[in-house]
Amino acid sequence: MTALLRLEVLEVAYGDMVAVRDVTLDVHAGQIVSLIGGNGAGKTTTLRAVSGLLRPRRGTVTLDGVRIDGLSPAVIVARGIAHVPEGRQLFPTMTVLENLEVGARTPASRRGRAASLERVFALFPRLAERRRQLAGTLSGGEQQMTAIGRALMACPRLLILDEPSLGLAPIMVAAIFDNLARINRDGMTILLVEQNVLRSLRLSHHAYVLENGGIVFHGPGEALLTDERIRTAYLGR
Q: What pLDDT shows up at residue 232?
């Protein structure tokens, strides 16, 4: 079965510093796949290479068997990948509604904007209540909901998220993960980088462990939860 997303021997560098080396991974349609690892392991760099924000020095990124490495971020969005970056990166002086509408930039997503907005508000009722509120005045959790909603407005086939729980209160972390599970049940494929390894593995169908820019092992999320190496390195057990 062809993977929806495939990275093959991917290498990404910042000047002379190689941040990701020989990364090969698959994300199949309907899956939630996690990348876990310590700070500086190469997780964010990998996501940025997928979404076109960084150009690989070597290797390939394919979507449905078609190479997308080297394409611009705008074209990659149009091909069906939406990226929720670390830190959310909203427009603070624009309203929630305006931030959401920014996500519908391709012709197809503009045509379906009303229906997409309805789905986002059904998923995040709090955003419907605050649609006229400036994004910069929202709580951290509400900002993260807005960032995820903005990505969904692009009508992607693959949603990639970088540290969606970062800086959030535990109750909001639980809400965000519940929403990701719901989005996946509705058919969305997800590639996730997340500092909360326990929640990430519990949510994921498959996970890859990155260390020093390379994948050291991988397997089903539930299986990695019981792996002694994971328990010692990332779960403190």
A: 85
